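Margin note from the TA: students keep mixing up input and output lines. Inputs are the sequences; the output is the structure of the whole complex. Example:
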Amino acid sequence: MRTIVIEPEYEAWRAAARSLLAQGVAPEEVLWTDDSQESSLFVREEPTVAAAEQGASAIKVPAAFMDMARSAAAHTDARRWGMLYRVLWRLTRGAERHLLAMATDRDVRQLQDWCKAVGRDIHKMHAFVRFRLVGTDAATGREQFVAWFEPEHRIVRLATPFFEKRFAGMDWSILTPYECAHWDGTRLHFTAGVSRSSAPDEDALDDLWRTYYRNIFNPARVKISAMQSEMPKKYWKNLPEASLIASLIAESTGRVQGMLETEERAAKPAPNNAYLKSLHAMNQNEAAAQNHESDPA
Amino acid sequence: MMDITRKLEILADAAKYDASCASSGAARKDSRGSKGVGSTGGAGICHSYTPDGRCVSLLKVLMTNACLYDCHYCINRRSSNVTRARFTPDEVVQLTLDFYKRNYIEGLFLSSGIIRSADHTMELVIEVARKLREVHQFRGYIHLKTIPEASQELIAQAGRYADRISINVELPSQQSLNTLAPEKNLARTESAMGHIRGKIDERYAEKRKPDAPKPPPFATGQSTQMLVGADASTDAVILGCADKLYTAHRLRRVYYSAFSPIPEPSAILPLKAPPLIREHRLYQADWLLRFYDFKVEEIASAAAPHLDLALDPKLSWALRNRATFPVDVNKAPRELLLRIPGLGVRNVERIVRARRYTGLRLADLIRLRLQMKKLLPFITAVDHHPAKLGLDSDSLRARFLPPPEQLEINFGAPPAPAATDFLSVRSGEL
């Protein structure tokens, strides 16, 4: 049995896996662990580099697996490295080239679940990051924004290319507890994680945003479970609009009751407007034409 | 003069009855290399959710809620006593950019009450989109509502700035429109949709030409909305209309919006509880039309024009067509797998791929996390052969009915004695 301690990053796993595969080390013979676990129990053993180079080029893996591996690697489950290696082994040495087509396979299913969780986390980061304006760069005139987000998995590097494309014209930083991303118009770079207090709490526009949120809500069709399944409570503390949720729900019944008790309004006659007159004339002509068409005589 | 907060209150409130929130399906573009912001082309992002369960992806506002028309289901009709407001194009532009940069939204959905004339209104709406695109290099999503009576040139111009354009049919028959929206005309709406389809197709054709320069942008799709429960139209009529729009004008989406209470109700259209379950069933039926190869007559026919509110339309169809079942998941063609209740498009694909290498057993299906209870009577697998008798039994339908207490629509609102009666009303038909 050999123990592989790796940086909890896809590239580190990939290098180690490549080497192990080249040496023909079966998945049962490897114990994977990463720095986020208590690694002191294990002895670090470097894979032999020479062996890694040897034969590695002969190994062909479906591109879909590489995508999956990159995504599953971002999951926080400690078993992911071993599972990725096992599936890699089965795809190559195990001669199960079609394995990824088997969504019914336990290992594949597990990888897919991890990918799905990571994908959802990325999607929620794209949705729920809230940038706060902190200033303007005196030299470039570019607005500078900072956001705070708490992802569940290690997704910052996977999620930030989206922000680079979308917000190229402004400077921004996204701070998270384990890693931060920064964009200055030319370069995306990453620094170590920080605490919540490093990010601003508010933005001058938050009130206007809450005004929008309050007024786009329809009190006549309250459906709290639908909201919560897509916007779980764990995100609320970092969303400026979430502070309104309780009161909007509480007031909804009374608001609808108010509508029901309002006296119904009679139709007003059409105002004197040339366009409206032409519209009514058009409608009458069309109705007449239609009656004529359907008239068998 | 009204401040921006007050305007936003009025003009967002006035826009909330448009159900569309789609922000997907746009052409791929982004802000790299520009001084602006914005990107489109990926999956749509819901940046927030309001307690009505609806997604907030776009800043959805009206240019103005003043309106010449008198549509009785609409809070903005000319007979309504609602406070009126009007944005300037610059105000909408600024709001859009400010909200976008904070990642509150991923675009703008701009509509308007009709003032002065269709063309005049259209010009105001277009001016906002033009400024966003040309002055601010905004590459985010823009959805513009268009007016069928506006000139074709203006509609084409809207299409050049927008990712999506839409015209609401509102009601599926002219007869209903005559009563509830006397200014609207179904034939003119459809004719405008036909022109828009022509433009969209034209651009796709240009794009496909080899060696041709990239054609100027144009909206990649159009959508529409139909109100449910404001008139007496049956589900068969509503789905028939939707199907016609999908085929004749290749709409991306038809939205169904349950008529829900509005402030300032009209004497011609009394308020009632919004038919939310019916709306939900219509969306399910719509999905069957678009992704499962169902025909309208299979879902709602002239003989049975209403959807079963207690069961989803696919399960209802299966119960009416029991001779088709059980279906062998290991052998049946894809189109037949798509007919199995509880089996969605994605899992059909998974089954088709996996069964090339293995005979599927129940344990395999469980690993796909299928809804086994729903599925079992309708399928056979290597180790599962349901008794034909089970399929024939009268109790099969009863087995799928939700327990009675779940039939109550939970509006989610905390109970308040005054409104309890209203809120516990089921969706009208249930």
